[in-house]
Amino acid sequence: MNFKKILPFLFASALLFNVACNDDDFMESTKSEAYENGILITNEGGYSTPTSEVSFVSNDLSIFENKIYGKNNNEAILGNVLQSVGFNGENAYLVSNVPNKIDIVNRYNFKKQTTVTANLDNPRYIAFSGSQYFVTNNNFFDVMRLNVYNTSNNSFVTSINFPRAAEKVVEANGKIVVQTDGITYQTVAPFGELPTGYSLTIVNPTTNTVATTITLPSNGIIRDLISYNGDAYVLASGNTASYIYKVNTSNGTFTTKTLTLGQAQKLRIDANKFYFHDSSNKIYSMDLNSTTTPTTPIVTSPGTLYGFNVIDGKIYSSDASFTGDSKVYIYNTSGNLLKTLTTGIATNGFYKNN
Q1: What is the pLDDT of residues 144-159, one digit of tens each?
Q2: Nearest-angstrom CA–CA distance, 62 and 59
Q3: Cα–chain-centroid distance for residue 220?
Q4: DSSP string of 18-57, one letter each residue
Q5: pTM here?
Q6: Whole-angstrom Cα distance, residue 34 to residue 163?
Q7: Which run of H or E residues covers position 295?
Q8: Distance (Å, rounded) from C-alpha 191 to C-alpha 204?
């Protein structure tokens, strides 16, 4: 064996491998806890193909890596539709709508711990309180419920059924808040959006029973539900106006902020500011206590804005492709583009992983 010939070849191969693994001048991390202090990016995948995956970018945007689930689990396939992610301690819970499962991984090295499948039927979103986690299930026909599981052994505890929907779920001030209304569609052309209703259901996690049902005003369609500093916030919107409701989960009351801007789609809060976008991909911000609707967008995100979040002063948005790679655009809150990433199929979410 001629080592003088082989060594240069090995050196060139190693150099080529290193270059091939970089994306937009990023370095692939090799730490045992490679995914700490960064953002997990969920790639929903194609509904009929098992192409769900997770990407990672560090907080300083210097490290980027695609397909971290497969890479850290012997090239295992995650699934078809990765809906959302939740965190509890050192674990991340990957909620897959197709197939019906929750893969629990170590959030810092992404090694799978276990998979939960009991009583799941089109799981959507997840929240945590005490020693339990709560998962909405919604097949939009005959399954609309909240499942409760034990965090210590992932055993199924009980279900709570709802009459119309079970979408977003958050923990706020010791209560579990479930978005139990949202969107349906006309059955004939032009197949427009219709509200199913305007209810939120407050669940007591101590007894796993419904504490109260809140009916919001009949304005627009409920689009989003989030939690911030102990309060739940709901976004509803119609064609000409949008509404942000701040919900006190202790007494079931709420206050209303009306925006003279239609079709607000997603709501986020970062550093005491609201962020949302409209149906034209324009991203806006306003102070939590402001009563003035913003008129000038921070930025207009390219393509079709699908995934959206604002984390520690950075805006993350995706132009999602459902047949190939998606693009992620990262801006500062002044609207300056910081980085563009190439991610997986149907990038739908961004999650802080510190």
Answers
A1: 999 999 999 999 999 9
A2: 8
A3: 23
A4: HHHT-STT-B----TTTTSSEEEEEE---TTS---EEEEE
A5: 0.90
A6: 43
A7: none
A8: 37
